[in-house]
What does this fold into?
Amino acid sequence: MTPLSILKKYWGFDSFRPLQEQIIQSVLEGNDTLGLMPTGGGKSLTFQVPAMLLDGVTIVVTPLISLMKDQVDNLRKRRIKAVFFHSGMSGEDRRKAHELIYNAGAKLIYTSPERLRNPRFLQELRMLRISLIVVDEAHCISQWGYDFRPAYLQIKELRKIAVNAPVLALTATATHKVSEDICQQLNMMRPRIFRMSFSRENLNYIVRKSETKITEVFHILSRTQGSSIVYVRSRKRTREISEYLCSMGISATFFHAGLDYEVKERRQNEWQSGAVRVIVATNAFGMGIDKPDVRVVIHYDTPPSLEEYYQEAGRAGRDGLKSYVVLLSAKSDAANLRRKVSENFPDREKIRKIYERVCNFLKISVGEGYDCLFPFDLDNFCNIFGYQRRQCLAALHLLSQSGYLEFLEETEHRSRIMVVMQREELYDLSSLSLQAEKLLKCMLRLYTGLFTDYVYISETILSAELNLPEQYIYELLLELSRAKVIKYIPRSKTPYIYLPTSREEPRYIVIPKNVYEERQKILSERVEAMIKYSSATNNCREDHILHYFGEKRDGTCGRCDICRDKRKKAKNTRLEKEMLITRIIEFIKERPNGVDFRIISHNLNSSDDMVAEILSFLTAEGYLDLIDGAYKLAQD
Ligand code: ADP
Ligand code: MG
It folds into this structure.
């Protein structure tokens, strides 16, 4: 099999995109490889295709649990055996995944970097024949990257286990400093580096100064067409803006991480299918979403880095057609951004206090908790101790960067059921209520595989199907579960705290300089680069971005607001000059005895410089004569 035939067989695509083939080739030749491609460039295939060609298994380290699930689901649909591991999984799920590896010969194993801290897990990986190590979102391994994850350093341990396997690192955002760091941190041997240009020729970058952003959003959307995303950095405002747009007759909905799974799914689908034009969302929206015809991406708030801005704005125009990305900027934005950076760093005493309180709250005593997972209700915690959510999150983040705990916020489990009663027994359900029986039949009709495994269900769908309130469905599910007909795991959105080490005494809690001071510096440098982008008045916007990512090119984009302004200005000056030439010639014509420069300039009410320039041009071209300091029309 060749890479191309694999591509055709499993994905049904006809050809590779730029750089995909080169990266695949390099990996198959056994080279350590770094691939830099913008989001949507097609990085996943660069390891999924080799995984199918190589004998052993491919380990993929990737930071986001939700993306991991998406990818594995996607692969399974293509009949490719893949599994995932992360610290928030139940023992049961882990056991199943193992089974798939050993008995069914999974080709790809996705894992969170945190999972690699677990010696048992590493031990298990040691038993496998690892043919390729993939590090997705590889900028996370670098302190200079915008999303440093200390657990990524753990990948070195993985390399020790599979000495002969090449490593493929992939990222969409890497400055030169970061790409060097990635190679070094991963101990890459003579890495082959493939870099795709970050220039997007169909994107028009625009910055709009506005103190009434909401009306500006409406104006932009009413003057454009096609699918749009409005990014906002507050959950509350996603709703407000979307309601405002709807009231103004623009079809819109909103999305943020706090919504129920079903709601998110539904809204995403409505937007994806084009039934709803605009989605107003926090940055929780967009990852793993691949809509080619997004025409407008508006940023209501300025993101804290160009990396994030480029990634989010880059969701526009995947189909290569002309699209607009607009950043709205108000006077107070810069100060707000700077303040947010400092809020990310509560002082160390406070961090220790929060650690202590979290452990007490979870009833973990000193010396205990190693490798344990605890459901953690952050809001409740904040309420009890009077913390602000943001401050608490910042402290948890620093504690996690320092290796004391991990806060897994995004674990979200949809409801699952499995039928435990034997098929024959199902005919005799006399003990059940009529409604419960109806529900059971409905589930058997809607879902397959219920007898062999847990299957995701949706209370919302069932409620619509049976025309019963959701709360009632929930109660019926509990009834079925009490009657031992099914096993029911209700959906939960509780975040978890995972302890990679047992609880420490507060005085031994060290938040190192590289986690605190150095990161603070990096974050503020990044914010400043973003502020510079939004406040620039003279440099091409795309140039600014490319330059930031270490890319050089000749010329400017010609499409951004600044390039357009410059062109417009140049055109205006040209028009003004042409008019002035006519007026000057008229003026001199009426004064055959000649007139002085000052008189011309004064009477024509124009700038001295421009008049002087035109006079010397007209003289040089032979239209005028300059005699004794007076201009006359030339006698031809
Ligand atoms: P990235 O990880 O670089 O952001 P993905 O790997 O998620 O991008 O790919 C983005 C989209 O492009 C996916 O929907 C994928 O199916 C599609 N894609 C990737 N390579 C090809 C190809 N050679 N032909 C057609 N579609 C492709
Ligand atoms: Mg990707």
